[in-house]
Amino acid sequence: MCGIVAYIGKQTAYDIIIKGLKRLEYRGYDSAGVALHNSKSLNVYKKKGKVADLETFIDDKDISGSIGIGHTRWATHGPPNDINSHPHQSGNKDFALVHNGIIENYAVLKEELTQRGHQFLSDTDTEVLIHLIEEIYTNSKKSLTLFEAVRIALNEVIGAYAIVVINKNNPNELIAARKSSPLVVGIGEGEFFLASDATPMVEFTKNVVYLEDGEIAHLSLETGLKIKTVANQEKTPYIHELEMHLETLEKGGFDHFMLKEIYEQPQSIHDSMRGRLRSSKSMVSLGGIKDYEEKIVQAKRLIFVACGTSWHAGLVGEYLFEDLARIPVEVEYASEFRYRNPIINEDDVVIAISQSGETADTLAAIKMAKEKGATIVGICNVVGSSISRLTDCGSYTHAGPEIGVASTKAFTAQVTVLTLMALMIGKKKGTITNQRFNRLLVELESIPEKLESVLTLDSVIKKIASTYKDSSNALYLGRGINFPVALEGALKLKEISYIHAEGYPAAEMKHGPIALIDEEMPVFVIATQDTSYEKVVSNIQEVKARKGKVIAIITKGDKDVKEIADHYMEIPLTDSLLVPLLATVPFQLLSYHVAVMRECNVDQPRNLAKSVTVE
Ligand code: F6R
């Protein structure tokens, strides 16, 4: 949450920062701001609203200078307004700071600083930090460099931060630091970039350094990049090569990133399996977990930790692992898990699932599990992300950058990797017959093609969307491995169209939610042909008997549900364990079209941010 971009070099900093902030808007869009140094003055411009509003505000202002910092905000402390927007300045206006994270002890620090004469303009925790830095620097009577002053200040801070500081008196340095919030340094020819992720720098450099927790960096065109820990230990920067392509960050002719990402799924699922699955050779291999394969095979239990959509992927994983690998699985909301004093021991394997790899609750959960001796496996999309670096081993989902705030292709890629993992472990454990293993490999390989045919349902789904776009509520039902699909369908609808929606196991409907059903209530049901088909048909009858509207996802060729449902979406036949990979997609399209028809901001739904770096 909150996006940071900074630049020092020879280009116009403003252009790079604004473009970068637009790429990072998925992290928050309550307000935006920049501080630009033009060799004479430090100009700070900030505005409530999106980066585009900031651009309009800045239209007639001085944007010159080749060093600057920028920020796009997801509000934590204080409402979204101009004053609370970043950058925040020190009392003497010599320094400006952008921040992503939360300074937990800001109230105590603010009280102390106020007593010593500091006056604050905003409600934010961030402003406190820049005043603290100013005080340490000023009190040292210039015996400290700004870099040292920042380092000392950070030793007094409790909480999470990625920060960048710019200095009015030295237009040749930027100071950056991180703890629990991400920060990437890009190294170009005679220029440096800083950002919350690598997307703002990808067209300028492929060489990046991911700052580690507790590190502070000094960036200068004269002295280069220097890194220390906040405890004052010198560090040698480790340069990674980025594998990201510019075109993956653009809409490519689609109206929204979300639609593009929905349509990318045949390819992204294919990419998740690339080099890992070959049915002709009866082969599944995930190189990233190979060294820990035995540990997983021997695990007494698996614990999935995740949030939101990734948690839904974990629920699908539970069915896959219990069925194919016969290992007991618990699926935990990362935020609940860590506050429960859970029983974890060395035979447990914790699998963290996260698109961004930065979700604060998931990070904290795995840190705790690691301390208790569990083995930690990661399933992340963003390469080099904090979670991927903290785990013992893991598999990237390789879905490519997901920019729409609502997760789509990341979910199906997570489910694909979980399927590969469950197959690999099941095979090694001998809990799956060769025949079933081979059949599943062939089926899995055919999913991208089957998904292409699911996407041709778009016009049918658009019609269904227009029928139900004005609903106030919706119910999503599924059984077994399709129950998480119902949860995910409901989450997609509520988060982007603001229609209240709930997902339920179909059989649970009669224990409460059935009271909600009347002729106004759309009930979306996954009624594909598998072991629970007959039961789901009965559940549909129960809805119809109460005049509810049924919109069913059915297997191509189905007759019974077709007859009783008000609308249906036909998907190709596949193994029941793989249905979630197909059945999720019509619900994604449905939510997308409903949201567009309701004129909602599909890619940036209200109050949300994609990378949730606060707990
Ligand atoms: C919903 C959505 C969120 C995320 C959740 C976890 O569409 O995107 O629910 O799934 O915030 O994020 P990651 O996967 O980045 O840990």
CATH superfamily of the largest domain: Aminohydrolase, N-terminal nucleophile (Ntn) domain
Q: How would you describe the oligomerization state of the chains in this entry?
A: single chain
Structure summary, number of beta strands: 27
Query: What are the bound molecules?
Result: fructose -6-phosphate
**Helix content bin:** 25-40%
In whole angstroms, the N-to-C terminal distance is 11 Å
Classified by CATH, the class of the largest domain is Alpha Beta
Give me the CATH fold name of the largest domain: Glutamine Phosphoribosylpyrophosphate, subunit 1, domain 1
Q: Stretches where pLDDT falls below 50 for ≥5 residues?
A: none
- Estimate the strand proportion: 15-25%
Strands of the widest sheet, in order across it, are: 3-2-4-1-10-9-11-15
* Overall tally of domains: 3
Number of discrete helical segments = 20
Which value, in Å, is the CA radius of gyration?
25 Å
Q: Quick one: overall form? A: globular
State the secondary-structure class.
alpha/beta
What composes the largest sheet?
8 strands, antiparallel
Q: On the 0-100 scale, what is the average pLDDT?
A: 95
What's a quick, concise take on this entry?
This protein has 615 residues and is an alpha/beta fold. An eight-stranded antiparallel beta sheet has the order 3-2-4-1-10-9-11-15, covered by helices on one side. A seven-stranded antiparallel beta sheet has the order 5-6-7-8-12-13-14.
List its traits.
single chain; 615 residues; alpha/beta; Glutamine Phosphoribosylpyrophosphate, subunit 1, domain 1; Rossmann fold; 3 domains; eight-stranded antiparallel β-sheet; seven-stranded antiparallel β-sheet; 20 helices; 27 strands; 24% strand; binds fructose -6-phosphate
